[in-house]
Amino acid sequence: SSCASSIASTPSPQGIEELEAAYKEVRRENAALKEALHDLRGTAAATAASSAGLDDILATATATTPGSGSAAATATGTPAALGETARGGARVSSSMASSMASASWSCAACTFANCPLLPFCEMCETPKPAAEHCETPKPAAEQAHAEVA
Length: 149
Fold this sequence. Notes:
Blueprint: H1 2-9, H2 13-49, H3 54-63, E1 84-85, E2 91-92, H4 94-103, E3 105-106, E4 113-114, H5 140-148
Antiparallel strand pairs: 1-2, 3-4
């Protein structure tokens, strides 16, 4: 007990130096992470500004996918004839790909295309603009009541 209290009450120059060194290292790492995030945001903005949209990317991926439209199966067991190949070899139907592209919202801060259900940007966590929030569907009982009234 007396040993613990003497350690806690008397600051050690070596302990302070270790803390200062650790603090400087954390600050360096933080600066590096901020720089990487800045670079990613710049890359995302440049990518969004380019003429290639999601539909163009999906069309290119489909056109260059060997076996597209054949009965070959993917790793998930989905026949290739049922859809297009998206990132990672996953199969996405044409209608699903177009609805995903049209339903997403673009972040005003970083231009990332987000899922329409997210209230904030998945990339930079900027809140979704109020005008783009989707309305929550009313329960069927409330809809039926509204139609009768």
